[in-house]
Amino acid sequence: MADVSHRPGDIAGHPDASEMRERYAKMLGTRGVAAVEELVLLAGIYAAISAWTVHFAAAKPELALSNLICGIAIAVLGLAMSMAPERSQDLNFVVLLLGVWLIISPWVVSRDAGTGAILSNVITGACVCLFALVAGGLLMSKGRSGRRTT
């Protein structure tokens, strides 16, 4: 009869062991980046609904529409980046630009946006910019450390 019992052994002799180690290290290396990019997703969702949350949608519909479009774009980019963080380094720049747009849009889109709308946009835009910079920095540092080992 065949011996099918599982024996504890060393996997070092497995022909794909080095490839499996590299994949696992890459996956662990991008875990923090994905967490930051999930914060981008949440910030995008908030930016999209902020006009109704802060109650300026009726008074400033053009700013509400700008926030809705920008927030949806940020949320979609955050979702895409969290699903493939190793491929999303270029998207961080786009998210950074959208964060800057959130910061300046109350003055560009609306002449008198109101304190609540200004504060909401500036804080949300600053968070989006911060998250994009942190994720980009983490990806760059992971890329440098990966190049050193090879």
Automatic annotation (TrEMBL):
InterPro entries according to UniProt: SPW
Superkingdom per UniProt: Bacteria
Domain SPW repeat-containing integral membrane: 39-133
Record flagged with keyword Transmembrane helix: yes
Transmembrane segments: 39-58, 64-84, 91-109, 115-140
Short name of any one Pfam family annotated for the protein: SPW
Signal peptide: none
Keywords from the UniProt entry: Membrane, Transmembrane, Transmembrane helix
Name of the molecule in the record: Membrane protein
